[in-house]
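ingest -> validate -> predict -> emit
validate: passed (alphabet ok, no gaps, 305 aa)
predict: started
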Amino acid sequence: MPLNLPDKLPAIELLKEENIFVIDNSRATQQDIRPLRIVILNLMPLKITTETDLVRLLSNTPLQVEISFMKIKSHTPKNTPIEHMKAFYTDFYKMRGEKYDGMIITGAPVEQMDFEKVSYWNEMTEIFDWARTHVTSTLYICWAAQAGLYYHYGIPKYPLEKKMFGIFEHRTLLPLHPIFRGFDDVFHVPHSRHTEVRREDILNVPELTLLSESKEAGVYMAVGRGGREFFITGHSEYSPLTLDTEYRRDLAKGLPIEVPCNYYVDNDPDKEVLVRWRAHANLLFSNWLNYFVYQETPYNIEEIE
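emit:
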């Protein structure tokens, strides 16, 4: 089934070139189907890139998915045209009366700041509380995962000696959990962060279950509330060249940055990228949509509580 996206969203034409079936709102209204309503709170600086990455992964399902984009009122993005934000994003305060089958909250470039010092922290905590009663299942990614774990469960984040940057091997701790259906014993995930959460803190919270970790990258995934909250520290959604762009950007700025681990062939930045996480990323998002959104959400969306 197709993705139902806002009319004229740039991702539509990009994904059509990849033979991904998308339709805009105008055409979707002609189909008599109850689509899954997914809202994305996109906090990443390059919003159009992140939109496309997430929409690509949400397309790998037989379900019809209707996607909306949320923004926070207390922050104005610097790297996305204001016309794009006005056309495709809606303030949280205008959406708070709505209910959604699923929600994705992305990372944000504020991870080295204390949570309470982030200018939009108060609005974020309102959204975290709102999601618990208005969304069937929420996927928290990278900084959002750390922020959600801190706000809901009191789990701190810790600074790393150097940036966790590259592609790392991971293992499942509960391989029969539905989120891992179809996963290999070892799978790869991109990471790009300066802070971490620690396994012992998660294991000390009875309401949380640690699902996956990496020898090198540490905690990868935890789940709470029976699958209504997933906290994911990596960036499974990244496209093949995202880490390359980050690496060359930081080099150009003269920032201390190492070559991303296990990313280029022979770890040589003059060679091509070796993509090893695409299959895992598609399984992760399709399993989430199937087992924790579609199979759990009520047909009457107003019954979500």
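Residues 27-32 have pLDDT under 50 and may be disordered.
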